[in-house]
Amino acid sequence: MPVCVACNKPAALPAPPPMEVTVMQITQRDTPVEFEFTAQTQSSREVEIRARVDGFLDRRVYTEGQMVHVGQTLFLMDPKPFEAALQTAKGELAQQQARLGVTKENLARVIPLVAQNAVSQKDLDDARGREKEAEAAVIAAKGQVQVAQLNLSYTTIKSPLKGLSSFARQQDGSYVTASATGWLTSIYQLDPMWVNFSISENEMLGYRDQVNKGRLRFPANNDFEVTLVLADGTVFPSRGRINFANPAFSSETGTFLVRAVFANPDDSLRPGQFVRARVAGAVRVNAILVPQRAVLQGAKSHFVWVVDNNSKAHQRVVETGEWHGDDWFITQGLQAGERIVVDGSLRVVADTPLKIVGAAAPRPVSEPTPGGTAPASGSSNVAAN
Fold first, then answer.
1. Range name among 29-38, 179-188, 197-206, 368-377 with the lowest pLDDT average
2. How many other C-beta atoms lie within 10 A of the C-beta of residue 184?
3. CB neighbours (10 Å) of residue 149?
4. Quick one: which of 83, 93, 185 has its CA closest to 136?
5. CA gap 39, 228 in Å, rounded
6. Residues in contact with 234: Cβ distance below 8 Å, sequence separation at least 6, in sequence order
7. pLDDT confidence of 207, banded at 50, 70, 90?
8. What is the Cα–Cα distance from 317 to 298, expressed in whole angstroms?
């Protein structure tokens, strides 16, 4: 009996429904960016307080670690030897002034005698010479008095600025010499405060190249604004400005030093603190930003799924830049107007129809966030000009 084979075939499985994804249309826009550095604070004026004369240190008259003011006495040295030296110098001055008076009187007597031919012209010349010598001796003696007065004044050691005092390096009763052991303490000015950070040569050259190609724009006159993030994550209330860029690279580290200045009226910043400096003011011109979740990592490169007019996905290799918050700068591979898959990209199959269920909103350009992989375009901008 004939058998109908076709009648026993199973029914065909229904086609799977299209994969649901959200997409984003690519736009180009100028995007403000911030760049973050590891930085360290430095006193804007650090002064070593040193003894100017040799002698015994009588006592310290300030409290170590406290704020001191301009003209405040810090140390007192034994003044007695210097008082004696001043008295000696004054005595020598008095002797020379007396000698000058005698030579002037002798000259006054010789002049009329020469007119009467009672003494020779040589006697007149000698009298005038002795007067000049006596005048010079008086000038020298006055100088010795001034030196002695200065040395005596140096026994009272005062602060030349307002700042935070350090510990005393010499104890009361120590014999100090100006050349060897004269460093007594240090004073650190806290307002304003400097913040130093560095840029590598490669970073500087890279950002200079982007500026030359028109991809990156710096503010007029390199007027960058700097924000400090402290070790506990709090943001320092004052904003700073870059006020110095070293004209040369360090031969030891190969980095370029940049310095910002901050107002520190309440002295909350102290020298030597490690902070993070965020430099704002740079703008990426016609930048393309896509969410990080839309960019996938292939075997050799990053790629995204580009959606065509038939709602089919095609893989596109892209070149990524640094992070910008939750987004990624795309430097090559995408054009304005194209659509890419954002949510659901891990399940996408090439050339398979997709069901688009929503569109991802672009990030507002008014919210610059620190770059993720490129430290401090702001600093290189200083170096790039």
1. 368-377
2. 21
3. 15
4. 93
5. 9
6. none
7. confident
8. 9
Q: HEC string of 324-378?
A: ECCEEEEEECCCCCCEEEEECHHHCCCCCEEEEEEECCCCCCCCCCEECCCCCHH
Nearest to 278 by CA among 216, 217, 329, 236: 236
* Residue with tokens 């806290």, as numbered in its chain: 190
> Model's pTM, two decimal places?
0.75
- Record the tokens describing residue 232, joined without a space: 């506990």
Please report, for residues 71, 100, 309, the alpha-carbon distance to residue 378 in angstroms, rounded to integers and kept in the order given.
Answer: 40, 71, 41
> Could you give phi then psi for residue 95, rounded to 5 degrees?
-60, -45
d(CA 194, CA 39): 10
Say what the alpha-carbon torsion angle 262, 264, 265, 269 is, to the nearest 10 degrees: 170
- Cα Rg, the chain, nearest whole Å: 40
First-to-last alpha carbon distance for the chain, in angstroms, is 95
Non-local (6+) Cβ contacts of 143 within 8 A are none
Residue positions counted in the chain: 385
Please name every residue paired with 20 in a beta bridge, in sequence order, or none if there are none.
355
- Residue 375's pLDDT band (cuts 50, 70, 90): very low
